[in-house]
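ok, trying the design again with the full structure, not the truncated one.
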């Protein structure tokens, strides 16, 4: 790896912080989502139900444990920590006239603690935690008014932390809004009123609303990039894409064409706009073919051109097969499932493991954009067993990460300009898709179960020392 490679780990505020209503914080959309399992979907309840478990309310209580957790990250040798900020900790309702000082101070303290160990903060501004006040008042990002709320939030944190944070991501996995069933998680919006519904339910979907909300996020992101550069020209501000690596099921030309079209809309549409600064032709055709009409202001095209990002970041977990014909054997995935690939193994949650797909993806992305690239999420969700001696022998996680890092190194040899790598869930956290703790990703075990019981004690796993060695040797020692 090149000198200065950013090794580290990644989390999201709504999955680790807890303290959902402490020190002036308002509710976020994540705070209105119940627990669940990988077989029982989470629900969205616009009014909190007594006796119902909401995982984000406590999460793993990073809010109280951040000093201990950051010390553990430092023991592993982290160069960077990718984290998100809880918008409603800064602006409790999203559109408040002034920010919440207690929330601002909390992040001051976190950044100061990171700097103490020479760990670079890598901050996601919005990571599935739109203030619920904006859902109630505007139906989230469907309304253009939320752009100004977001820009005011950005202006506040850019000015406050301009000397503490250099790396920013405007939206986490912004391309989720190209997928049905993501209105609430991606845009803080509901299609049919405020009744309780299943999380990610395609029945509660409206493509017109999704893509209108997405356009508003494009404009907000571009404005934030331009604003950030004016506040501190040294800021590096990037996009973040959930990359869903697709292969054609067969060499049937229909499979090839459908794979290309799926990849264009799900993976490239958003980054084409954020990196290149304009709506691509295939995207315009998709909108027209699906009866989606984006309402734009005359100045929007210029805003998009002026607010292109400095680097491209993405999450990568698996690959999927695409077929033009119905197929019976399917698998799950991060945001969407697909057809089972007979050449790949699957995790306990049915996700296909494809390290070579990471190399393929890195080359695809870098060839297209020719700007620095960063892997900000990659990891294995698994059930970890605490042995009688207290150890956690997660060799399966080590194997997963090793195989992906090997392919990452191959991509660098191919010529990809890779900035860094932050493994997802460097400490166990609440799963966003299912609300579980059972599905663990971290190098650090947190004593908590799916029902919210546990001491919250932190315990390093076997992978902790393995990753420490990887960072110490800048990726040379993977044994």
């Amino acid at each position: 790896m090149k000198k200065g490679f950013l090794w580290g780990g990644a989390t999201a505020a709504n999955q680790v912080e807890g303290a959902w209503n402490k020190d002036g914080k308002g509710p976020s959309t994540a705070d209105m989502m119940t627990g669940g399992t990988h077989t029982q979907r989470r629900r969205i309840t616009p009014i909190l139900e007594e006796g119902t478990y909401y995982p984000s309310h406590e999460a793993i209580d990073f809010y109280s444990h951040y000093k201990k957790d950051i010390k553990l990250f430092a023991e592993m040798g982290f160069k960077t920590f990718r984290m998100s900020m809880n918008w409603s900790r800064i602006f409790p309702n999203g559109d408040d006239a002034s920010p919440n000082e207690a929330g601002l101070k909390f992040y001051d303290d976190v950044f100061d603690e990171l700097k103490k160990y020479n760990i670079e903060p890598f901050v996601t501004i919005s990571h599935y935690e739109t203030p619920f006040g904006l859902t109630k008042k505007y139906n989230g990002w469907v309304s253009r008014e939320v752009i100004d709320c977001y820009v005011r939030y950005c202006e506040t944190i850019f000015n406050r932390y301009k000397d503490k944070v250099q790396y920013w991501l405007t939206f986490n996995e912004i391309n989720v809004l190209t997928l049905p069933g993501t209105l609430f998680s991606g845009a803080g919006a509901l299609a049919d009123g405020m009744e309780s519904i299943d999380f990610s339910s395609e029945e509660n979907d409206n493509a017109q609303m999704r893509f209108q909300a997405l356009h508003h996020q494009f404009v907000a992101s571009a404005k934030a990039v331009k604003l950030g550069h004016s506040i501190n020209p040294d800021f590096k501000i990037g996009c973040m894409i959930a990359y869903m690596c697709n292969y054609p099921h067969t060499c049937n030309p229909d499979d090839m064409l459908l794979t290309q079209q799926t990849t264009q809309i799900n993976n490239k549409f958003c980054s084409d706009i954020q990196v290149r600064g304009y709506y691509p032709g295939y995207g315009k055709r998709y909108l027209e073919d699906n009866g989606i009409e984006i309402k734009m202001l005359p100045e929007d095209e210029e805003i998009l051109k002026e607010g292109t990002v400095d680097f491209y970041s993405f999450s990568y977990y698996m690959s999927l097969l695409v077929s033009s014909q119905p197929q019976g054997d399917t698998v799950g995935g991060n945001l969407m499932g697909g057809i089972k690939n007979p050449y790949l193994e699957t995790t306990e949650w049915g996700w296909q493991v494809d390290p070579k797909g990471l190399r393929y993806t890195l080359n695809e992305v870098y060839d297209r954009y020719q700007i620095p690239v960063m892997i900000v999420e990659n990891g294995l969700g698994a059930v970890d067993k605490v042995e009688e001696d207290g150890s956690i022998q997660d060799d399966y996680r080590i194997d997963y990460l090793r195989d992906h890092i090997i392919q990452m190194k191959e991509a660098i040899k191919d010529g990809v300009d890779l900035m860094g790598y932050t493994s997802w869930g460097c400490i166990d956290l609440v799963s966003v898709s299912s609300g579980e703790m059972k599905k663990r990703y971290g190098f650090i075990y947190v004593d908590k179960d799916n029902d919210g019981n546990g001491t919250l004690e932190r315990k390093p796993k076997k992978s902790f020392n393995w990753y420490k060695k990887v960072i110490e040797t800048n990726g040379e020692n993977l044994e």
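Keeping the full-length input from now on. The mean pLDDT is 95.
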